[in-house]
Amino acid sequence: MTKYLVIQKENMTSLMKRHTGLILLLLAMVFITISGFAWNVKSVTITADGETRIVKTHLNSADGVLRDAGITLGSKDAVLLSTTTVQNGTELTVLRAFPVKVIVDGVASDVMTVQTTAQGLADELGYKAPNYVPLGDSQAHLQSGSEVAIARVTSRSVKSYEQPVDVQVIHQRDDTMRKGEQEVVQEGSAGLIAVQEEILYQDGKEIKKQIISQNEIKQMVPTIIKEGTRDVVETSRGVVRYREVLTMEASAYLPGDGDGRGITASGMVAQRGVVAVDPNVIPLGTRLYIPGYGMAIAADTGGAIKGHRIDLLMDSYGEAMEFGRRSIEVYVLQ
């Protein structure tokens, strides 16, 4: 009896060990499954209907991810993926189909599409080259309500000709030159290309022309123009900013010239620094800087001062005579 009990106890111990091993194995499998499930979670960016959001998912198909996010796709809608498969960091973009009117050989119909060009829509509908062609610009951007005409091609011809290439003008900013100054540093010359053009016909009527090749015969040389951007000038009062520089014919006068009262047209006392101008060219009250003369203000006029003429008020007769008449640059200050 004692021997039987010992054997029975050993059997139960062995059975419990086997069950414990099985339970541990099952727990390990569950842990691995749960861990693998958690490890497979991905962050995916979804852009749809004007909104962008990031979702967490363990799904591996775009349709599944969108469905899980509550986004419904129409039969003509499309989805763009930033990667070949749904991965962590993948961006999903939903393209909503929009209505376009299509006219094929005079027969109109309304279709839904996500295609963005007339050629793409024609290809999608099966109207492909060389038997069909979209009229107008094949790469024209489509949007809701666009109209695309597609014609059947029955014959074609090719025309070759030479076409000039207009000179391109390149403007280069140069802060070593004052504002308004220009310098041509390279004279351009026109180019020349050989063009092959295909003409498409439908029942003998021309329906479209399109370039099929272009080969350069002579390279176009651009004209290069430097343009000054420096808008400051150094004066005895420091650096000042100006808005334009005028080349003017200058003469000199004295405070007692004119009616002899020594009062300018603007009411200011006639003294050095006052200049007479044509108000149609330089408005009265405008601050000026004149190299060799200094800071000035446009405050006077004169019967002979018309157009790009300026009269500088001097302190003495000798200074006025020495100045005489000359061409000068006048900086119109800001």
Automatic annotation (TrEMBL):
Pfam families linked: 3D (PF06725), DUF348 (PF03990), G5 (PF07501)
UniProt keyword annotations, A-Z: Membrane, Signal, Transmembrane, Transmembrane helix
GO molecular function: hydrolase activity, hydrolyzing O-glycosyl compounds
InterPro entries: 3D_dom, DUF348, G5_dom, Resuscitation_pf_RpfB, RlpA-like_sf
Highest taxon in the source lineage: Bacteria
Cellular component annotations (GO), alphabetically ordered: outer membrane
All copies of domain G5, residue ranges: 150-231
Segments traversing the membrane: 21-39
Keyword Iron-sulfur applies: no
Protein name from the UniProt record: Cell wall-binding protein yocH
GO biological process: peptidoglycan turnover
